[in-house]
Specification:
The chain has 134 residues and is α/β, with parallel strands linked by helices. Helices cover 35% and strands 16% of the residues.
């Protein structure tokens, strides 16, 4: 399993409240937008990461994780599986505490690399589904 209950709980309640959401834009029809809103409702700071670097849900956006000028606790990944491994590696390089691959995003090699680097990781799960259950 790529997200045991203890890891999910630690990420959502203990790791920190700053979440970089990779793939988040102002498109309200995209899943990333809805998930970001739920995270905000539960007290998380959502930092949009998207090539457009637009402000979303009141938060300044950045074109990449490397451009964020402050610490990020969790990197929530809304890109396809073929690109997700690169984002996980960028999260490790940026000093994030955890990486969360959304539903349908699976990269077992990235999961192993991220865990070996000492980060918590969840894959193929959605925090907007998990957080209300805590």
């Amino acid at each position: 399993m790529y997200g045991d209950p203890a890891t999910i709980r630690r990420i959502l309640t203990e790791l920190g409240d700053t979440w970089a959401v990779v793939g988040l834009s102002n498109n309200q029809d995209r899943a990333a937008y809805g998930v970001a809103r739920v995270l905000q409702r539960f007290g998380k700071r959502v930092v949009p990461v998207h090539p457009k670097a637009e402000t979303v849900l009141g938060e300044q956006g950045y074109a990449s994780l490397a451009e964020i000028p402050f610490e990020v606790d969790v990197v929530d990944v809304f890109v396809n599986s073929a690109l997700a491994g690169r984002v996980a590696d960028e999260a490790v390089a940026a000093g994030a505490g955890a990486v969360w691959f959304q539903l349908g995003v699976v990269d077992e090699a990235a999961f192993a690399r991220t865990r070996e680097a000492g980060l918590e990781m969840v894959m193929d799960r959605c925090p907007a589904i998990e957080i209300p259950a805590l």
